[in-house]
Write a structure and sequence with these properties.
49% of the residues lie in helices and 14% in strands. By secondary structure, the chain is α+β, with helices and mostly antiparallel strands. It has two domains: 168 residues, Transcription factor LuxR-like, autoinducer-binding domain (Beta-Lactamase, 2-Layer Sandwich), CATH 3.30.450; 78 residues, Arc Repressor Mutant, subunit A (Orthogonal Bundle). It has a five-stranded antiparallel beta sheet with strand order 2-1-5-4-3, sandwiched between helices. A hairpin with a 5-residue loop joins β1 and β2. α2 packs antiparallel against α8.
Length: 278
């Protein structure tokens, strides 16, 4: 891959394929020559719809976990999805680098990611069109080695090709549903307002940080309060939301995002009048 002529010839071969599955298949074969990868997956995030799997290399026995379970709602906790949602620029990212907490302590890992049996995952963030983001994931299975600095350098150099192929795949995908709404209109609104009618301002801020995967210590450092104070606020917000665990907290957020959360219930909205300034 150090030979410029070979590199250029390989790119030409990839782009010569028909857009969509043939071109994506050629792209993954090319990337495999840069750095060995066990699985590839290209998910499209457009509107309020579930992520659209434009391409993947999972065998049949893994598709339910890697594709169906991911699309069922857990994707809203995915650091790659959140990175796209909140404006990370196009480029190559590591799952570990985007996760704000110790990765194995992150709720996304505990609730879903550990079942994938991956040792490392990289993601190419691309923007195929306005209000549309796509991520091509490169996954190494359990026991796999970390990507080397040389592999990372070569993979970063491949970003323009990945972006072009993803854009062409987006164009070839067919029309999205007519009732699509922008993620910035829906998900960001739910994220920013989640719990605010029942919680104090400080509790609401802590709830937002929890949704992003921050630990109690990291929240304490960011807000310049003690870890014990964070735990008190966390216990209070759990009580007000009538939940008892982090899993229930994230489940409540998912239901709110889908329009079936507690904040749509009139009797709970009445309690907003009791909100205490914090």
């Amino acid at each position: 891959m150090h030979n410029l002529a070979t590199w250029t010839q390989d790119i030409t071969t990839v782009l010569a394929q028909p857009p969509g599955q043939p071109q994506l298949q050629a792209l993954t074969h090319w990337l495999q020559r840069i750095a060995p990868v066990d699985h590839f997956a290209l998910f499209l995030y457009e509107g309020s719809h579930a992520p659209l799997p434009l391409f993947h290399t999972f065998p049949a026995e893994l598709r339910t976990t890697f594709v169906n379970d991911y699309r069922s709602g857990v994707h809203i906790l995915d650091p790659f999805f959140l990175g796209c949602l909140f404006g990370e620029p196009d480029g190559l990212y590591s799952m570990r680098a985007l996760s704000p907490d110790s990765f194995r302590c992150n709720h996304y890992f505990q609730a879903y990611y550990h079942r994938l049996g991956l040792s490392e995952e990289l993601g190419y963030f691309t923007t195929p069109a306005l209000h549309c983001r796509a991520v091509l994931s490169l996954m190494r299975g359990e026991g796999g080695e970390a990507f080397t600095e040389e592999e990372m350098r070569l993979l970063r150099n491949a970003q323009p090709v990945v972006a072009q192929v993803a854009r062409l795949a987006w164009e070839a995908r067919g029309e999205p549903a007519a009732d699509a709404v922008l993620p910035t209109t829906h998900v960001r609104t739910v994220f920013s307002s989640f719990g605010e009618e029942l919680l104090t301002r400080r509790e609401h801020k802590i709830a937002q940080l929890l949704l992003q995967g921050y630990s109690s210590q990291q929240i304490a450092d960011q807000l310049r309060i003690t870890r014990g104070t964070v735990k008190v606020h966390r216990r209070n917000l759990y009580d007000k939301l009538e939940i008892g665990s982090q899993a229930e907290f994230f489940g409540l957020f998912v239901r709110e995002l889908m329009g079936a959360g507690l904040f749509s219930r009139p009797q709970r909205r009445n309690r907003a009048q009791q909100r205490v300034e914090g």
